[in-house]
């Protein structure tokens, strides 16, 4: 596993300190305090957010320090290449005490042993059962919990109310209805549906007919069930010509494509709501749960946890920080503006997100979502899928041929790593 880590870290990142803000040099043990006297300094590392998110995090950390006057939190913002920097620092024994970990990266990180198991720290008062189960499970291995999810987003159907009204169509509830509605909405340079042709968005569709994208930690997306499930995505673009990816209309993302009104529908996450409010404030739109596929509800979920460095010398204070940040009080502050959705059901209910006109569909999807995480080889599997799926999406080659070749290449790379 260390071989995988080292191969993924570029030499330029060995000078990772240049992209860190406010790095701590306090390497003392629990309570040693460094320059803080009798206080314990806990380092917390994560990637940066927009100014509002940054302010919310700083407010949450200030509340924690007020309630825990014997602990100082030193926040480190890694501005670029987050995971490569973290891997380099952890390998070098210079990792932070607490840090963000995406579910996508969690299995491989857990396998290396650098993440502290957290179950022994948990008390009944922490109410683990309050977390959305699929999101919590993303950070478990062999029934051991290695992280608690701080926030998440699912995908929902964003639809242009004006276009729908002018076309005289209803919001689709099934994938078949979505494809039919797209035909009525595609005209005058506008596509009915904006697509992200990548595994992170297509995973739940790929498995909708009973196939598995990953099997025994190897690529399996060349199976007939997966190919059949994904073929409608290809056909809508190449046969019906009622869908497009953002780059085909000069947009930078699905949200941008939708905001420019070059697509009447897109599948996007919670991040799209503040983006549209700021960038396209006059857009009239609504959200709905993702249309069912093969009669079943489905969507993707993307989540990030707070985890503890197993090599930290300040584990007690580090757990107190994680406990607060993922507890009800800290999570309520962090998610209070709607930039992130709370992983605790009670916090979502208290903040009213389940009944929110725009966010309710996103919250509803949490209980049946497919979490973007599956085994230690998902990064390799994803890269190979994406490289070939786009060729089929653009009509350059048949889908079955593209995916079977991609699966073979992925498993060849996985075999060489083992």
From TrEMBL:
Gene Ontology BP terms: maltodextrin transmembrane transport; maltose transport
InterPro entries, alphabetized: SBP
Pfam families: SBP_bac_1
UniProt keyword annotations, A-Z: Signal, Sugar transport, Transport
PROSITE patterns tied to this protein: PROKAR_LIPOPROTEIN (PS51257)
Signal peptide span: 1-21
One example GO MF annotation: maltose binding
Domain of life of the organism encoding this protein: Bacteria
GO cellular component, one term: ATP-binding cassette (ABC) transporter complex, substrate-binding subunit-containing
Keyword Transport set for record: yes
UniProt family annotation: Belongs to the bacterial solute-binding protein 1 family.
Protein name: Sugar transporter
Species name: Jeotgalibacillus campisalis
């Amino acid at each position: 596993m260390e071989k995988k880590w080292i191969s993924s870290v570029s030499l330029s990142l060995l000078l990772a300190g240049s992209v860190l803000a406010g790095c701590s040099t306090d390497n003392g043990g629990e309570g040693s305090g460094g320059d803080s006297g009798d206080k314990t300094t806990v380092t917390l590392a994560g990637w940066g957010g927009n100014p509002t998110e940054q302010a919310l995090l700083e407010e949450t950390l200030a509340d924690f320090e007020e309630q825990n006057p014997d602990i100082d939190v030193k926040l480190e913002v890694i501005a670029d290449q987050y995971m490569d920097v973290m891997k380099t620092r952890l390998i070098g024994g210079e990792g932070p005490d607490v840090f963000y970990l995406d579910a996508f990266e969690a299995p491989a990180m857990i396998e290396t042993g650098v993440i502290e198991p957290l179950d022994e720290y948990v008390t009944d008062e922490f109410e683990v059962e309050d977390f959305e189960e699929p999101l919590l499970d993303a950070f478990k291995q062999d029934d051991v919990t290695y992280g608690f999810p701080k926030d998440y987003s699912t995908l929902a159907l964003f639809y242009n109310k004006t276009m729908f009204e002018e076309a005289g169509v209803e919001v689709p509830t099934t994938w078949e209805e979505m494809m039919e509605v797209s035909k009525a909405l595609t005209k005058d340079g506008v596509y009915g549906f904006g697509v992200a042709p990548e595994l992170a968005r297509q995973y739940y569709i790929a498995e909708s007919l009973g196939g598995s994208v990953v099997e025994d930690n190897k690529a399996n997306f060349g199976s007939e069930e997966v190919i059949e499930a994904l073929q409608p995505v290809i056909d809508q673009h190449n046969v019906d010509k009622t869908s497009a990816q953002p780059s085909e209309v000069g947009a930078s993302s699905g949200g941008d494509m939708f905001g420019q009104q070059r697509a009447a529908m897109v599948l996007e996450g919670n991040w799209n709501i503040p983006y549209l409010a700021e960038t396209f404030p006059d857009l009239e739109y609504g959200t709905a749960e993702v249309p069912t596929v093969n009669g079943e509800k489905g969507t993707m979920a993307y989540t990030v946890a707070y985890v503890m460095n197993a090599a930290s010398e300040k584990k007690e204070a580090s757990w107190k920080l994680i406990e607060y940040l993922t507890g009800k009080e800290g999570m309520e502050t962090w998610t209070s503006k709607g930039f992130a959705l709370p992983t605790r059901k009670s916090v979502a209910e208290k903040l009213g997100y389940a009944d929110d006109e725009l966010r309710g569909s996103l919250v509803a999807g949490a209980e049946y979502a497919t979490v973007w995480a599956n085994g230690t080889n998902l990064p390799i599997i994803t890269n190979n899928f994406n490289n070939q799926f786009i060729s089929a999406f653009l009509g350059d080659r048949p889908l079955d041929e593209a995916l079977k070749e991609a699966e073979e290449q992925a498993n060849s790379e996985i075999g060489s790593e083992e």
